[in-house]
Design a protein that fits this description.
With about 700 residues, the chain is α/β, with parallel strands linked by helices. The protein has 26 helices and 28 strands. It has 4 domains: about 55 residues, N-terminal domain of TfIIb, CATH 2.20.25.90; about 240 residues, Rossmann fold, CATH 3.40.50.740; about 190 residues, Dimethylsulfoxide Reductase, domain 2; about 130 residues, Barwin-like endoglucanases (Beta Barrel). It is about 35% helix and about 15% strand. Strands 5-4-18-17-16-6-7 form a 7-stranded mixed beta sheet, with helices on one face. A 6-stranded mixed beta sheet has the order 24-26-25-28-23-27. Strands 10-9-8-12-13 form a 5-stranded parallel beta sheet. About 60% of the residues are buried. The structure holds ligand MGD (2 copies), iron/sulfur cluster and molybdenum atom.
Length: about 700
C-alpha cells in the first residue's frame, strides 16, 4: 500500500484504557513494530506489554485470509460471493420457516463503533429481531443495569486523570495493574503523591500489597461489607445530608435497611474485622474527594446488579459523585465495550440506551431508517444458547468473540453451537468457536480499517488504517453491508466509516455533537457531546442526574449460588493475567508474552496444597459439577486457604469447563467468579492433558 515507511497513530486494541499507539509501517507496507504515542491524554507515552506486543497479535501467520465453508470436518476455501449467498439463503429459509426469533447476531467489543452500529441495525432493520448482544453480557451488564437505575447512566462518572485529583481511591473487585495496566500504574503514582488507597479483594493483588488498607473479604460478600460501611457512616452522621436532600431519593428506607447491619454482625460472613470496616468507612466518607474503581469482582456474581447498586448507594450517601476526583467508576474492560453498549448491541436498547419497548423510540428508528423494525424483545447471548438447545433458535452470526473459551460451562456452549443450523463466525484466526462454524469469514483487524473506539472514560477516539487487509479480509461493517444487500436490503449501504458514524451520531443523543473532524482534532471527545456540551464531558452528573434525582435502593446480601461442600470442598474464582488477554487468540501469538505464561495456572494456597500433597508445578486435576481440566499448580499466598483461582485465557486448560451458569436475575450475568471444585494431584510423572485429549478419551 505505502511506498515510504510511515508511522500511523491509532489506539491500542486490547483493554478499555485506550492508550495511544503508533504503528510503524515499512516501505513494503508491513507492520514492523509499535511505539507509544507521546502526549496522549491517557497513556502519556506509556504502554503495557500487551500494547507493545500488538504487532504480533495481528501478524499474517495463522490469519484467516479467505471465507471458508465446513464440509463435514474439513474447511474448504470459497469466494465471498459464495459465502454470502450460502448465508443469505439459509437465513432466508429459517426466517420463512421459524421467523425472526430464530436468528440473532453477537457483535464484538473488540470491533469499532461503526461495526457495532451496523451489527445492531442489521439485526433490527434487516433480520427484524432484537436478538443482538455481545460480551458486555458477561462483563459489565450489571453496571449498565445497576448504575442506570441508580444514576441514570451506566458509565464511568469521571476521567482517568481524576486519579490525580482525589484524596481516596477505593479499588473493589478489580485488579488494574494487570488488567488496565497503564491506569493501574497511575493508581500507584496517585498513592505515591498522597492519595490513600483502599483495596477490597479476596486475593492479594499487586495493589493490595501496597494499599493503605486491604480488606480481604470472602468471595461474594460485597453487599454485606458495603451495607456495614453504610451502617457505620449513617450511625456517625458521616453522610452528606445536603447532597442527599437535594439530589437523592430513598434515603430513609436505605437507612432502615442497614440499621442492624453492624460491622460486628458481618465479621464472620465477610471475614473482615469490624475495626477495619469502621476505619475505611470513616476514611471514605470523610474524604473531600474519593473515587471508587470497580470491576469483575463486583459484576460477575448472581448478585451482580445488586452489588453495583450497593456501591452506588455508598457513593451517593457520601455525596461522592459529580465532582472532579469524586465518583464511581466501572473499569470497562474491552477496548470498545463502552462503545458496543453505546451503539445498542444489547437486546433491550437502541443506540444511546433508548429502550426497545418504548413505542416512541421504535417509531424514531423506523422513521429514520425508513423500515419497520423488530418489535419483540430480544434474547441475550446466553439466552440464544439456551433457546438453541430448546430447538427455538437456529442461526447465529457472530464476530469477534470466542464463547467456547470465554462463556461459562464450555461443554454446554459447544453443545448449543453444534446444534445450530447455521453458525457464521467472522474472525482474525481459527478460534475454538470458529472451528465449530459452518461458514468462517476473514475479518480485518483494527490496523486494517478505520473507525472509532470508545474507551472506559467515554472517550471516542479515532483509529486509522495502517495496513491493507490480509488476503480478502473485510471490515465487519463492510461484510455486514454486503450480506444485507444479498438479503435484499440497502439499509447498510454506506460508502465510508464516516458515513456510518454520522448516521449513528444523528440518532444517539450522547454522540450528537461529534464528527470525525472534531474527534481527530483532539485525542477524542468524551460523551455526552451535544449542544449543551460541545467539547464533551469529563465528569458526569455535576448538577443533576439524567433521571433527575438519584435513587438510593436498599439491597440485601445474596449468597453465591454454589458454595463449597463435602464433595467439592474448594471455591474456584477466575481472574486475568497481565500478559494474556481474553481467549488468548491475539496475545498468545507473541513469543514475549508466551514466555511469561506460568508453568501452571491453578493458583492455590500452600496450606491447601500441603493437605492435598501438591507441590509447586505438580500436575493437578480440577473438577466441578460441569467439567474437568488438568494443569499444574502454582503455590501462592495471594489466594487465601479455601480459595483457588484460575485465569481463563488458556484453551488447553479452560477454566470455563468448570464455571457455573447460575445467573443474575436482572441481567442474566453468569456467576463467573465463584463455583465449587475438587482439586487433586495427578500421579507422579503423568503430564496434564489438554482438554481436547480429555474430551476425546471420554
Ligand atoms: N491482561 C488482561 N487485561 C484485561 C483483560 C484480559 O483478559 N487480560 N480483559 C479485559 C476485560 S474484558 C475486562 S472486563 C477487564 C476486567 O478487569 P478486572 O475487573 O480487574 O478483572 P478480574 O481479574 O477478572 O477480576 C478482578 C478482581 O476481582 C476480584 N474478586 C473476585 N471475587 C470478588 C469478590 O467477591 N469481591 C471483591 N471485592 N473482589 C472479588 C478478583 O480477585 C480480581 O482481583 O480487564 C480487561 N483487561
Ligand atoms: N471464567 C471467566 N470467563 C470470562 C471472564 C472471567 O472473568 N472469567 N470474563 C468475561 C469477560 S469480562 C469478557 S469481556 C469475555 C471476553 O470474551 P471474548 O469477547 O470472547 O474474548 P476476546 O479474547 O476479547 O475475543 C475476541 C475475539 O475477537 C477477535 N477480534 C479482534 N478484533 C476483531 C475485529 O475487529 N473484528 C473481528 N471480527 N474479530 C476481532 C479476536 O481475534 C478474538 O478472538 O470473557 C468473559 N469470560
Ligand atoms: S493498558 Fe490497555 S490500552 Fe494501554 S497498552 Fe495496555 S492493553 Fe493497551
Ligand atoms: Mo470484559
Amino acid at each position: 500500500m505505502t511506498m515510504t515507511s510511515s508511522i500511523v497513530k491509532t489506539v491500542c486494541p486490547f483493554c478499555g484504557v485506550g492508550c495511544g499507539i503508533c504503528l510503524k509501517i515499512d516501505k513494503q507496507g508491513n507492520l514492523t513494530g509499535v511505539e507509544p504515542q507521546a502526549n496522549h491524554p491517557i497513556s502519556h507515552g506509556k504502554l503495557c506489554e500487551k500494547g507493545w506486543s500488538t504487532a504480533y497479535a495481528i501478524r499474517p501467520d495463522n490469519r484467516i485470509t479467505q471465507p471458508l465453508k465446513r464440509i463435514k470436518d474439513q474447511f474448504v476455501p470459497i469466494s465471498w460471493d459464495e459465502a454470502l449467498t450460502t448465508i443469505s439463503e439459509t437465513v432466508s429459509d429459517i426466517l420463512n420457516e421459524t421467523g425472526a426469533k430464530a436468528v440473532g447476531v453477537i457483535s464484538s467489543a473488540r470491533a469499532t463503533n461503526e461495526d457495532n452500529y451496523a451489527a445492531q441495525k442489521f439485526a433490527r432493520a434487516v433480520l427484524k429481531t432484537n436478538n443482538i448482544d455481545h460480551c458486555a453480557r458477561i462483563c459489565h451488564s450489571p453496571t449498565v443495569a445497576g448504575l442506570k437505575q441508580a444514576l441514570g447512566s451506566g458509565a464511568m462518572t469521571n476521567s482517568t486523570k481524576d486519579l490525580f485529583e482525589t484524596d481516596v481511591i477505593v479499588v473493589i473487585g478489580a485488579d488494574p495493574t494487570e488488567n488496565h495496566s497503564v491506569l493501574g500504574g497511575q493508581v500507584f503514582e496517585a498513592q505515591r503523591r498522597g492519595a490513600k488507597l483502599i483495596v477490597i479483594d479476596p486475593r492479594v493483588t499487586r495493589l493490595a500489597k501496597v494499599a493503605d488498607w486491604h480488606l480481604q473479604l470472602k468471595l461474594g460478600t460485597n453487599i454485606a461489607l458495603i451495607n456495614a460501611m453504610l451502617q457505620v457512616i449513617i450511625e456517625h452522621q458521616w453522610h452528606d445530608k445536603d447532597f442527599i436532600e437535594q439530589r437523592c431519593e430513598g434515603f430513609d428506607e436505605l437507612a432502615r435497611n442497614v440499621a442492624t447491619v453492624t460491622p460486628e454482625s458481618v465479621e464472620e460472613c465477610t471475614g473482615v474485622s469490624a475495626e477495619l470496616i469502621r476505619i475505611v468507612a470513616q476514611l471514605y466518607s470523610q474524604a473531600k474527594s474519593a473515587m471508587i474503581l470497580y470491576g469483575m469482582g463486583i459484576t460477575q456474581f448472581v448478585s451482580g446488579t445488586q452489588n453495583v447498586i450497593a456501591l452506588a448507594d455508598l457513593a451517593l450517601v457520601c455525596g461522592h459523585i459529580g465532582r472532579p476526583g469524586t465518583g464511581i467508576n466501572p473499569l470497562r474492560g474491552q477496548n470498545n465495550v463502552q462503545g458496543a453498549c453505546d451503539m445498542g448491541c444489547l437486546p433491550n436498547v437502541y443506540p444511546g440506551y433508548q429502550a426497545v419497548d418504548d413505542p416512541a423510540v421504535r417509531q424514531k428508528f423506523s422513521q429514520a431508517w425508513g423500515e419497520n423494525v423488530a418489535d419483540q424483545p430480544g434474547l441475550t447471548s446466553l439466552g440464544m444458547t439456551k433457546a438453541t438447545l430448546a430447538g427455538d433458535f437456529r442461526a447465529l452470526i457472530l464476530f469477534g468473540e470466542d464463547p467456547v473459551v470465554t462463556d461459562p460451562d464450555q461443554n454446554h456452549v459447544k453443545e448449543a453451537l453444534k446444534a445450530l443450523d447455521l453458525l457464521v463466525v467472522a474472525e482474525l484466526t481459527m478460534t475454538e468457536t470458529a472451528k465449530l462454524a459452518d461458514i468462517v469469514l476473514p475479518a480485518a483487524s483494527f490496523a486494517e480499517k478505520d473507525g472509532t473506539f470508545t474507551n472506559c472514560e467515554r472517550r471516542v477516539q479515532q483509529i486509522s488504517q495502517a495496513l491493507a487487509p490480509f488476503g480478502s479480509a473485510m471490515g465487519d461493517w463492510q461484510w455486514l453491508s454486503a450480506l444485507a444487500a444479498k438479503l435484499g436490503s440497502q439499509q447498510l449501504n454506506w460508502m465510508s466509516s464516516e458515513q456510518v458514524f454520522e448516521e449513528m451520531a444523528s440518532l444517539t443523543p450522547s454522540y450528537q455533537g461529534m464528527s470525525y473532524d472534531e474527534i481527530s482534532r483532539s485525542h477524542g471527545i468524551q460523551w455526552p457531546c451535544n449542544n449543551d456540551a460541545p467539547q464533551g464531558t469529563q465528569v458526569l452528573h455535576r448538577d443533576t442526574f439524567p433521571i433527575g434525582k438519584a435513587k438510593l435502593t436498599p439491597v440485601h446480601y445474596v449468597e453465591i449460588d454454589e458454595p463449597a461442600d463435602e464433595q467439592f470442598p474448594l471455591l474456584l474464582t477466575t481472574n486475568r493475567l497481565h500478559f494474556h488477554y481474553g481467549c488468548g487468540s491475539m496475545t498468545r501469538k507473541s513469543p514475549l508474552l508466551e514466555r511469561e505464561t506460568p508453568a501452571g495456572i491453578l493458583f492455590i494456597n500452600p496450606k491447601d496444597a500441603q493437605a492435598l500433597n501438591i507441590q509447586l508445578h505438580s500436575p493437578v486435576a480440577v473438577r466441578s459439577r460441569r467439567g474437568y481440566v488438568e494443569t499444574r499448580a502454582m503455590l501462592t499466598n495471594d489466594v487465601p486457604p479455601g480459595l483457588v483461582s484460575m485465569p481463563y485465557h488458556f484453551k488447553e486448560a479452560p477454566s470455563n469447563q468448570l464455571t457455573n451458569t447460575a445467573q443474575d436475575p436482572i441481567t442474566k450475568m453468569p456467576e463467573l467468579k465463584a463455583c465449587a471444585v475438587q482439586v487433586y494431584r495427578l500421579p507422579e510423572g503423568q503430564e496434564p492433558q489438554d482438554i481436547q485429549h480429555l474430551l476425546e478419551e471420554e
